[in-house]
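[recover] target loaded
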């Protein structure tokens, strides 16, 4: 844009942000109010608890909870989050990254009524979602790459044992374990046009990200490869979700927490950042952490040896010599020690995971909800401003596709970020505010900046009619109108008076003219009578 329009553009951006914030206030207040009502029991908010218990029936509370989930999902969609699909969940479980622990999620501790009813009311939304969508909803936004470098000795030992022992057994019983999955298998690169300087088009797009998945299993796919590279150093790589939000409700309240209407458990909102796809299970609250296969194998082997020695002694009628008793005592001690070690390892693994997830945790509950609402406002305003600026700077009409590609290319060039720009949503809002005009059904052109500023300023000035300044203006206008009415009344009265005066003056003038004519006639008669008269002199 010209240098002379920079100040106007700054005002344009400020007014767009302020007006959008005003328009979103009702939604923000409704979300916050409903969330506080739904979570009143778990937060120990006595006034709200009394309100929900005395004024809301269990069915009304359930409907209120579903309404909150519906509004929350709309908020997440506007903030450009997407729901985790079953395909993505299967890809996440298929391989391991840094956390190779077997994890079982305790789904029986999750409430299924709330999200089940929500999905029942929104059947189109449930298509393709995870099989546990009635227990928890996972939202994600953005992607990145996590890397780790090292020799990974213990991981190699465990992987080698799984290759040689566990996987053949699982394959033999018809339950083979998936160990490698292609995360880019179903990723279809979108093609769209990029505008050259000469106005022609070429195919290019920057919103598609293909990430190479380098796990230890991919680098060392056979037992021999593990043995050859046992002491080698490797660099692992895994795609990450930059932002992850989980929403769920527990089936029962915690021991120190009061149940909500209908006996509902706490509704939980949590957010995380930079979660590796393969380690996605770590964000779930109710999980049972198991031990590595090698630890289990060691414990089972010692137990089998102890039991075998005991049975051999019984079956062979061998004498219970001091040596055999000592051997059995040592084996039993080893089994007990192994079990203790197993439990300690499980506790240690749980602590490691808790520490790791703590470093990746962001906000939760109301704080996270407010952050998401701010994030949504940010996203929507940026989309509107960027679309308007690109369209205005182009100087001519553009299609949605051209605007979309131009915005994505600009973001990629200036900030090296790959995005799927929501041009449709931005255009709807710009059209609603009169900042963009639609031509021929498919072309869009930006309203000139000065005119756009006038429209935004007019909307801002007319948001309310009860402010002090506006009241003074209205009073001044009313006084001016009343004054004008009075002037018109006086003018009309004067006009009528003048018209009456003119009529009276005309009658007087008429009489005077008649008298003047009579005098003139008499003078002429006297002059004629005196024509032959001789005047005396001296």
């Amino acid at each position: 844009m010209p240098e002379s329009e920079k100040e106007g553009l700054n005002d344009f951006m400020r007014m767009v942000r302020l007006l959008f914030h005003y328009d979103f206030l009702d939604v923000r207040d409704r979300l916050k109010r409903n969330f506080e009502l739904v979570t009143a029991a778990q937060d120990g908010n006595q006034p709200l608890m009394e309100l929900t218990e005395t004024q809301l029936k269990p069915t009304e509370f359930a409907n209120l909870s579903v309404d909150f989930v519906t509004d929350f999902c709309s908020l997440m969609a506007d903030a450009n989050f997407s729901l985790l699909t079953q395909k993505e969940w299967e890809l996440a479980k298929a391989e391991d990254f840094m956390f190779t622990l077997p994890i079982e999620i305790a789904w029986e501790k999750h409430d299924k009524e709330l999200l089940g009813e929500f999905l029942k009311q929104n059947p189109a939304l449930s298509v393709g979602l995870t099989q546990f969508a009635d227990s928890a909803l996972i939202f994600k936004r953005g992607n990145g790459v996590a890397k780790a470098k090292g020799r990974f000795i213990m991981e190699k030992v465990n992987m080698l044992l799984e290759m040689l022992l566990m996987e053949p057994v699982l394959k033999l019983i018809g339950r083979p374990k998936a160990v490698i999955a292609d995360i880019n298998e179903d990723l279809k690169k979108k093609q769209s046009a990029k505008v050259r300087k000469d106005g022609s088009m070429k195919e290019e797009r920057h919103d598609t990200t293909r990430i190479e998945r380098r796990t230890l299993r991919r680098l060392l796919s056979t037992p021999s490869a593990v043995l050859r590279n046992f002491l080698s150093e490797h660099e692992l790589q895994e795609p990450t979700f930059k932002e992850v939000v989980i929403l769920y409700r527990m089936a029962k309240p915690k021991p120190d927490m009061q149940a909500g209407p209908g006996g509902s458990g706490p509704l939980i909102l949590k957010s995380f950042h930079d979660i590796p796809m393969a380690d996605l299970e770590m964000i779930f609250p109710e999980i049972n952490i198991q031990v590595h296969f090698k630890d289990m194998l060691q414990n089972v082997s010692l137990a089998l040896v102890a039991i075998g020695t005991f049975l051999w002694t019984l079956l062979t009628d061998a004498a219970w010599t001091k040596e055999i008793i000592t051997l059995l005592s040592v084996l039993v001690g080893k089994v007990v020690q192994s079990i203790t070690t197993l439990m300690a390892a499980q506790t240690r693994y749980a602590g490691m995971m808790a520490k790791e997830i703590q470093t990746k945790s962001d906000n939760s509950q109301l704080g996270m909800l407010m952050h998401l609402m701010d994030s949504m406002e940010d996203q929507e305003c940026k989309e509107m401003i960027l679309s308007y600026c690109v369209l205005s700077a182009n100087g001519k009409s553009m299609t949605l596709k051209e605007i979309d590609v131009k915005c994505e290319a600009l973001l990629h060039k200036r900030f090296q970020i790959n995005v799927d720009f929501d041009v449709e949503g931005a255009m709807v809002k710009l059209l609603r505010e009169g900042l963009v005009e639609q031509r021929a059904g498919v072309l869009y052109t930006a309203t000139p900046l000065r005119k756009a500023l006038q429209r935004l300023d007019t909307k801002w000035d007319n948001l309310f009619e009860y402010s002090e300044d506006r009241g003074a203006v209205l009073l001044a206008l009313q006084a001016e109108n009343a004054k004008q009415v009075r002037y018109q009344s006086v003018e009309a009265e004067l006009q009528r008076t003048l018209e009456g005066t003119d009529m009276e003056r005309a009658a007087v003038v008429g009489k005077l003219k008649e008298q003047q004519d009579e005098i003139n006639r008499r003078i002429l008669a006297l002059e004629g009578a005196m024509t032959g008269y001789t005047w005396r002199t001296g």
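[recover] notes: The chain has 16 helices and eleven strands.
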